[in-house]
Design goal:
The protein has 315 residues and is an alpha/beta fold. The protein contains 14 helices and ten strands. It has two domains: 3-123 and 204-313, Malonyl-Coenzyme A Acyl Carrier Protein, domain 2 (3-Layer(aba) Sandwich); 129-196, Alpha-Beta Plaits (2-Layer Sandwich). It is 49% helix and 17% strand. Strands 8-7-2-1-9-10 form a six-stranded mixed β-sheet, sandwiched between helices. It has a four-stranded antiparallel β-sheet with strand order 4-5-3-6.
């Protein structure tokens, strides 16, 4: 076996009931849900386990809920004795990766993403900004489209470069609408509007980034014990000052997920283990490279199955 990367999902992977069977069967994971409730001052765990889904999906709830559940799942998976050579996460998931790498504590991380979600929701008045997924158009052509629309006075830019042929754009509602039309004219197969509460990972998030800086300034951020691949540059970071700067930039910069996966593969990673609800990132990794192995650890059962598969693979 070559090198291993643990990868952590971002917003959109949340579902009511995630992590519930895990904490019922493995008590050490339960502490994270209790800690989150205490740190945030409201029963986040009840919302995670019982819903309703529409409240869980709110950015301010989804972000701490996903971080909490992912770290709880990681706690159980640690039983495998497998340690990663690298960690990475998609947008919000980068905070989970940093907790996993020891760069800051769980309770500070869950508070930071709760505030991050709040700042992101409030940065732009409701309805004025949005996002859309563009399928089947390469990055350079889509960048030409978004640059043209932005220069015409309606800001829109690349937000998530996920894998070949799947890119999310973000900006003003009008900018995203116009870019969608132009993208289809340029050869895009589909343009899918996303149900989001704001234009995330665009320049319109700079007011949120300024507020986030104040939260990060109050945190105890240490050097990462495991290299973390940053969304902003798709290179590894371990130094505390670099971590803080990249988290601020991340709010208004594209998530370079395709380049992150390529960087990890070039660094010798041949096994990607997605830890957290869903298996979106495992699918994206496979679209970047069919030669690597991917595993999704999202509950008690899958954790046990993956542990056994990896054990067999090392024999």
């Amino acid at each position: 076996m070559g090198k291993i990367a643990f990868i952590f999902p971002g917003q959109g992977s949340q579902t009511v009931g995630m992590g519930k069977t895990l904490v019922e069967a493995y008590k050490p994971s339960e502490q994270y849900f209790s800690l989150a409730d205490q740190k945030l001052g409201y029963p986040l765990s009840k919302l995670i386990f019982e819903g309703p889904q529409n409240e869980l999906t709110l950015t301010t709830n989804a972000q701490p809920a996903l971080l909490t559940t992912s770290i709880a799942i990681l706690e159980h998976f640690k039983k495998s004795g497998i340690t990663p050579d690298y960690v990475a996460g998609h947008s919000l998931g980068e905070y989970t990766a940093l907790v996993a790498a020891g760069a800051f504590s769980f309770d500070e991380g869950v508070y930071a993403v709760r505030k991050r979600g709040e700042f992101m929701e409030n940065a732009v008045p409701n309805g004025e900004g949005t996002m859309a997924a563009v399928l089947g158009l390469d990055r350079d052509k889509l960048a030409e489209v978004t640059n043209e629309i932005t220069e015409s006075g309606h800001l829109v830019q690349l937000a998530n470069i996920n894998c070949p042929g799947q890119i999310v754009i973000s900006g003003t509602a009008k900018g995203v609408e116009l870019a969608g039309v132009k993208a289809k004219e340029a050869g895009a197969k589909r343009v899918l509007p996303l149900e989001v509460s704001g234009p995330f990972h665009s320049e319109l998030m700079k007011p949120a980034a300024e507020k986030l800086k104040e939260v990060l300034d109050d945190m105890t951020i240490k050097g990462a014990e495991i290299p973390v691949i940053t969304n902003v540059a798709a290179t590894q970071m371990t130094e505390a000052a670099d971590i803080k700067e990249k988290l601020i930039q991340q709010l208004y910069s594209p998530v370079q997920w395709e380049k992150t996966v390529e960087y990890l593969i070039d660094s010798g990673v041949d096994t990607f283990i997605e830890i957290g609800p869903g298996k979106v990132l495992s699918g994206l990794v496979k679209k970047v490279s069919r030669t690597v192995k991917t595993y999704a650890v999202n509950d008690l059962e899958s954790s046990e199955v993956v542990m056994e598969a990896l054990k067999e693979g090392t024999k």
